Amino acid sequence: xxxxxxxxxxGGAMLVSGTCIGAGMLALPVSTAAGxxxxxxxxxxxxxxxxxxxxxxMLEVSLWYPEETNLITMAKSTLGKPGEFIAWATYVxxxxxxxxxxxxxxxxxIGKILGTMGFDESLGLWITVVIFAAIVYxxxxxxxxxxRIMMIGLxxxxxxxxxxxxxxxxPQMLADGHPKYLWTTGPLLVTSFGFHLLIPSLKNYLSSxxxxxxxxxxxxxxxxxxVYLLWEVLVLGVIPVKGEQGLVAILHAEHHTGKxxxxxxxxxxxxxxxxSHVTVLAGVFGLCAMLTSFIxxxxxxxxxxxxxxxxxxxxxxxxxxAALTFLPPVLMALFxxxxxxxxxxxxxxxxxxxxxxxxxxxxxxxxxxHKEAQYRVMGGKAAVxxxxxxxxxxxxxxxxxxxxxxxxxxxxxxLFY
Length: 417
Hints:
Layout: H1 3-20, H2 24-32, H3 37-62, H4 71-116, H5 123-137, H6 140-165, H7 171-174, H8 186-192, H9 199-205, H10 210-236, H11 247-257, H12 261-273, H13 276-308, H14 315-335, H15 339-368, H16 380-402
Helix pairs in contact: 1-10, 2-8, 3-10, 3-15, 4-5, 4-13, 4-14, 4-15, 5-13, 5-14, 6-13, 8-15, 12-13, 13-14, 15-16
């Protein structure tokens, strides 16, 4: 592979990693704590394998079509009008669920900062939305610069946190927990490894070079797995699972009182480590993670509506697009400010869009339409069926979770206090 190709693969892998790593990782330790670090790690690795395989299926479908072909067109071509409609609806609901989570999370952190300065914390929501709606309104260039600044803050804060926290990690605390509480984490993990919507753009960026695309997807998804597992070590090795100041208590507080899990997590880290710098670093890390995710999803939704509704980006058109992009998530964040719950709903839609759809499109295109393949994922029919069943299982688990049919630390909170 030439140096130029390696450079392009590196760029592609960073695009994949940047799409995965974001606000979702803040919820992972809180949601998986009751399951224990070692069982959680196995679930992380399994979900990474399945999501990476489904990404390769999405790549196979994408390579059937010319550059600039998006998921909606791919769904329509393989599955007809019903496929197009389901893909369109699921796409919007998926991004709206993400926007709701990020709006709620970012506004909670900014509101907390305002509260320490004597201002009304509820202003955090409106400041977040107004500033970032303006950035998205002015287009990709302004988003790019804002994203770069926040990524610098995110990486710097994360590295500093690792340096401070890793010496304090207790191996004994990592052994706490029970695997039965991990059944509910599937949707959140699917969201955390969900970069598949980037693949058509990645194909354009790498000029449909199959080898470069495969390596970019593999290494780009592997880096988030490593980052997530290290973050689990840092949090689960310092903050206890049980007790009034435990991770289950944080999850319980968000579910029942609406307290922001991210804020509670950062404050507890600082308290337990007796290090005031941790509060600042964790706050910067949390806010930058929220805002990089928020701004990326907002731009994607803004452009999606412009294309789907054929709205020209005039002054009036941009106001309409901004309203479609930001108003529904703001209303949801106002009346139901649950960061982790919103991410679970996003995972429900992601299982349809990013797992089931690639499997069904590959099956229909490969075995029914007999499309000529520039690249075919290994594993044959059995692997495609396994991917489809994985997506269905995630949906069933989330439904059972909502019906309170699965063991959860919330339902058995008396065991943790």
